Amino acid sequence: MRAFEWIDRAKNAAKIESDYAIAKILGIHRATVSNYRKSSGLLDVEVSIKVAEIMGIPPEKILLDQLAESVKTPAAKAALERFCILC
Description:
The protein is mainly α. It has a single domain, classed as 434 Repressor (Amino-terminal Domain) (Orthogonal Bundle). It has helices at 3-14, 19-26, 30-38, 45-55, 59-70, 74-84. Helix 2 crosses helix 3 and helix 5 (59-70) packs antiparallel against helix 6. The mean pLDDT is 90.
């Protein structure tokens, strides 16, 4: 899942509408959220953990998902996605 999709899920979980408000909660700049929307950037570890806390899910799920997004080979991506199912 792309970084901005995780941020949008966190916004929904927290009942927040603006990127500015979620950025403030996550401890990042609003411009960083905009950059996640424009590019294929990945959430860093700290932001991944904060998003997981907001959503009430294990942080491993987001961390593994973002790692899977970063790999290039289909076999590695598939292996990480299978492992993430266990989260």
